[in-house]
Amino acid sequence: MRQVTLSRVGDVADPVARAALKEIMVASGANNGAFGSSLAGADTVGEAQVLLQQLQQWTSIAVDFTAPNTDHFIDLVPPDGFTRFHVGLVALSEATASLVAATAGLFTGAGGTGVQIVTGASAITVSSTAENTNNNSMRFTVNNGGTQSYNVSRLYFRVAAAVAAQAKVTAAIQWIS
């Protein structure tokens, strides 16, 4: 089966997205509960759309990039009946200074321990603070993003190498129950 990504659940009105959603509904039933049995039990695209909106979560935090080797924790609360989640996306935006000298990672344990969801000390390409310009945001590579689920209630965004100037950024994590 091919992998299908929906950028927005609202895209369901589009026939191609609707077909993708049907594939997700079928795949979720055979995914050992990682997406939960509720999604597979949806009878219509509309019901599946509502369920996907409940299962897809975004969490964002403010991260200070002036102190090296520091953790910024992210608490995750999945919907009732779900105990596992996938990390779909980790992104940085709204930087107050260039972060190209900095590095970071995302872990299941404090201090860079546990599973590396985003490899520790990953390079950062955010070099612009101006709106509507290239390199004012970025996405990290998520390790095993489509094949590994997690059952922890807290993740740790770790700044490895910091920058000298006052630099803050919004880190956003998309996770799917």
SS field, number of helical segments: 3
> Which term fits the overall shape?
globular
Number of strands: 8
Report the biggest beta sheet as strand number plus sense, adding barrel if it closes: 4 strands, antiparallel
Kindly report the average pLDDT value.
80
CATH fold node name of the largest domain = Jelly Rolls
Which regions contain 5 or more consecutive residues with pLDDT less than 50? 1-12, 27-39
Q: What does this molecule look like?
A:
By secondary structure, the chain is an alpha+beta fold. It folds into two domains: 47 residues, no CATH class; 121 residues, Jelly Rolls (Sandwich). Helix content is 17%, strand content 33%. The strands form two sheets. The chain has a four-stranded antiparallel beta sheet. A four-stranded antiparallel beta sheet has the order 2-7-4-5, with no helix packed on it. A hairpin with a 3-residue loop joins strand 4 and strand 5. The N terminus is likely disordered.
Give the secondary structure arrangement, pairings included.
Layout: H1 15-29, H2 37-40, H3 45-55, E1 56-64, E2 70-75, E3 86-93, E4 103-109, E5 113-123, E6 137-139, E7 154-159, E8 168-176
Antiparallel strand pairs: 1-8, 2-7, 3-6, 3-8, 4-5, 4-7
